Amino acid sequence: MADRIDVTEALKDLPLWGAHGGDRPAIVRNLAFADFNAAFGFMTRVALLADKVDHHPEWSNVYNRVEVLLTTHDAGGVTDRDIRMARFIDEAAGAMGAK
Amino acid sequence: MADRIDVTEALKDLPLWGAHGGDRPAIVRNLAFADFNAAFGFMTRVALLADKVDHHPEWSNVYNRVEVLLTTHDAGGVTDRDIRMARFIDEAAGAMGAK
């Protein structure tokens, strides 16, 4: 099982992410795309990776907006798996012009 | 602009849907699939239709679960567009073994 990383520590290298305000350690990012097509295209790229590495975001979508929460359930907090996923999300979102 | 339909009226023919408990008229359905792959496959089918008809669900996904909310922003409530989308969702979800 992956080791938990302190959320504040994890966020040091992820300036576009914040700490989840809820009841468990998690990191979150809100993204806005040009339209629904771009937002869902982004989600599809993330979904393909998520299914491949068996590590899934919790996320919601309203038109051009996507909110992503990452945490590792088995570990009860944020791990390297979330950081790797967050980096991929930042890369994919940047390539698709997300704000 | 499409005419608003009373939520109670709309739900009569949509037994798998409920009224949104929030601050605006909307209908909701919670779905559970076999796994993430099935859940996102379902979302992709819905997304393709949504983009085609320019009517988009508000939705969230956690692993095999999907929560969908339908409302028509322009009309400030539920319209035929939501009912048509709900019927497609029921059909697509049924075909993919959703509970």
UniProtKB/TrEMBL annotation, chains A, B:
UniProt xrefs under CDD domains: PCD_DCoH_subfamily_b
InterPro entries for the chain: PCD_sf, Pterin_deHydtase
Keywords: Lyase
Domain of life: Bacteria
Record field: catalytic activity: (4aS,6R)-4a-hydroxy-L-erythro-5,6,7,8-tetrahydrobiopterin = (6R)-L-erythro-6,7-dihydrobiopterin + H2O
SUPFAM superfamilies: PCD-like
EC number(s) on file: 4.2.1.96
Family stated for the protein in its record: Belongs to the pterin-4-alpha-carbinolamine dehydratase family.
Database matches in NCBIfam families: PRK00823.1-2, PRK00823.1-3
Record's protein name: Putative pterin-4-alpha-carbinolamine dehydratase
